[in-house]
Design a protein that fits this description.
The chain contains 4 helices and 14 strands. With 388 residues, it is mostly beta strands. The strands form 4 sheets. Strands 2, 3, 4, 9, 10 and 11 form a 6-stranded antiparallel sheet that branches.
Length: 388
């Protein structure tokens, strides 16, 4: 019988959607073929066959494991909240001037003439809505790992190893990124080191196992000039290899001279937040990418195990985006992870288009976001400046 993951989040923690459906082993992404290059690549027969972990490879790359089917009924999403009062704020002419003055003063090449002498002729509000959906997931993958054997406990075969989703892990608070690695119980066994073939040492790469190399002073002749014997190699023409101290071999870097490795399966757990935004288009003329770094007034926030699409919002495109993204997140992330919590918000980002006259010509700037950022791409009073 599968054990439920225990946490502080209550009985609903870790309950999965019915669309998971696929057996964990069969649905696991196929691992890439092991590399044949380099002496540290372990042979396939080095690892035991562990039921439930047949797709596990060394170095990871085996793909994320889909959660098993739920053993208890899924929680039903809470009732969709009543539509709130969508209040639309606006800024005053005085606040628009202050933001414009701050923007101009932060640019060394901008003259303050338009700020002091410009006359505002029109202010038009274009309130832009940003919908955001966040899905907090837990993903699990496995990999064979090795380390030098120094008497660590060996437990392979003592009893069946628990499945990847049966191992208890304490998740962080919702929407906080975190990673954890857990050694899977009952998978540890001892093998001879595949790099040094259980010898604990490997031929020295510097001297190719000879223990010595040609003397760099006399170039192997044993003499420096004429009949003077080379003092560096005492006339031998060769000197001891400094890498292996003349032994011709070096301690194996893989087993650290222990001759044996303990191999086991690591369970890698990742908690992550997947996020998608939708910005309702308006006719202000301000590029949407300018809004990425500003905040707005939060009009709506809903967080629960599964969220309903937003209903009754005055901008129909936001409601459409909510329905599409909620559906996409359920389909996209359910196959490889366990959805723990979802959160959706709607922000109203105020955008004000300010038209003004300066020296007989009409110009425009924008004030947007709670930060009152300004964009004035056609600022009429610029100069070239240089640092001497």
């Amino acid at each position: 019988m599968e054990r439920r993951i225990v946490s502080d989040y209550g009985a609903n923690y870790g309950t999965v959607n019915p669309i998971y459906g696929l057996p964990a082993v069969a649905a696991m992404a196929a691992p890439p073929a092991a590399s044949n290059h380099g002496p540290s690549a372990p042979p396939a027969n080095m690892f035991d066959t562990v039921p439930g972990y047949e797709g596990t490879v060394a170095g990871g790359g085996g793909g994320y494991l889909p959660p098993p089917m739920p053993t208890a009924p899924m929680p039903v999403p809470e009732q969709a909240p009543s539509p709130p009062d969508w209040h639309i704020p606006s800024i005053s002419e005085e606040r628009a001037r202050e933001a414009f003055a701050t923007y101009v003063s932060s640019n060394c090449c901008y003259s303050s003439g338009p700020v002091k002498d410009g006359v505002i002729t029109n202010m038009e509000s274009f309130n832009t809505y940003r919908y955001r959906l966040e899905t907090f997931n837990e993903s699990r993958s496995t990999e064979w790992t090795q380390e030098p054997f120094a008497g660590q406990p060996v437990d392979a075969g003592v009893q069946p190893a628990p499945g990847p989703w049966q191992i208890t892990a304490q998740p962080p608070a919702f929407f906080q990124e975190h990673k954890q690695t857990i050694r899977v119980p009952y998978t540890s066994s001892v093998k001879n080191c595949h790099v040094c073939l259980g010898m604990g040492r490997n031929p020295c790469k510097t001297c190719t196992g000879a223990g010595s190399k040609v003397c760099w002073v006399c170039n192997g002749s044993g003499f420096r000039e004429g009949n003077d014997r080379c003092s560096h190699c005492n006339g031998r023409g060769r000197e001891n290899c400094s890498t292996c101290n003349g032994n011709g071999s070096c301690q194996c870097d893989t087993c650290h001279g222990k001759r044996q490795l303990i191999v086991f399966i690591n369970l890698n757990i990742k908690w992550s937040t997947e996020k998608d935004d939708f910005v309702a288009q308006d006719l202000s003329g301000l590029r949407v990418e300018k809004l990425q770094k500003v905040s707005g007034k939060e009009l709506f926030k809903d967080a629960q195990y599964m969220v309903y699409p937003v209903m009754g919002f005055p901008d129909f495109s936001v409601a459409q985006a909510s329905e599409r993204l909620v559906r996409d997140h359920q389909v996209k992330y359910a196959q490889t992870s366990r959805i723990l919590q979802q959160r959706q918000t709607i922000e109203l980002i105020p955008v004000t288009k300010v038209s003004y006259m300066w020296k007989g010509k009409s110009h425009v700037y924008y004030v947007y976001g709670n930060e009152f950022e300004v964009n004035a791409e056609d600022y009429p009073a610029t100069c070239c400046c240089s640092v001497m």
